[in-house]
Amino acid sequence: MNPYDAAHRLAKALRESEEFKEMKEAQEALKADESAKKMVLDFRSKQLELQKQKLSGIEISKEQEEKTEKLLEVINMNMIARRFLQAEYKIAVLLQDVQKIIGEATNEIFDSELMGMPEENGEQDT
Q1: Are the C-beta atoms of residues 81 and 14 closer than 8 Å to each other?
Q2: d(CA 27, CA 21)
Q3: Cβ(10)–Cβ(4) below 8 Å
Q4: Which residues of 96-113 are buried (b: 16+ CB within 10 A; e: fewer)?
Q5: From first to last of its 126 residues, what are the pLDDT tens digits of the chain?
Q6: Residue 43: closest CA among 61, 80, 70, 62
Q7: Cβ proximity of 79 and 108 under 8 Å
Q8: Which end of the chain is more exposed for a tag (fewer CB within 10 A), N or C?
Q9: 85: left (phi over 0), alpha (psi -120 to 50) or beta
Q10: Angle between helix 34-55 and helix 79-106 axes, rounded to 10 deg
Q11: Cα–Cα distance between 20 and 12 in angstroms, integer?
């Protein structure tokens, strides 16, 4: 089997999947509703802020967590924003699963020793 042909078939299958179709529809609906779009973008901005803070080693306060949770609750009351976030989650899971399958199939050709990476069991040759 030609890997390029298989990749094209995979791309076609993804485009024809329910997850893909739902994501496209949810995205179009979100773009058409300015208030829902603003809510999602504000939520994304807050998430990114918290992520940067975590990566910088700065502790996230209880107040920040509560504000983010409340913002998510408000978003979930908006059917268009909620539909978009749910569709986005489903397509992300699908793509992660596909990536995992491909990773498992190719894992045997990537020798960690030859790539200069430590062994998975935490032991290294000394």
Answers
A1: no
A2: 10
A3: no
A4: eeeeeeeeeeeeeeeeee
A5: 899 999 999 999 999 999 999 999 999 999 999 999 999 999 999 889 999 998 999 998 899 889 888 988 999 999 999 999 999 999 999 999 999 999 998 888 887 787 787 765 544 444
A6: 70
A7: no
A8: C
A9: alpha
A10: 50
A11: 11
3-state class (DSSP) for residue 57: coil
pLDDT at 100: 95
Could you give the CA distance from residue 40 to residue 45 in angstroms, rounded to a whole number? 9
Q: So what's the pLDDT on residue 10?
A: 96
Taking the model in full, what pTM does it have? Answer: 0.78
How does DSSP classify residue 17? S
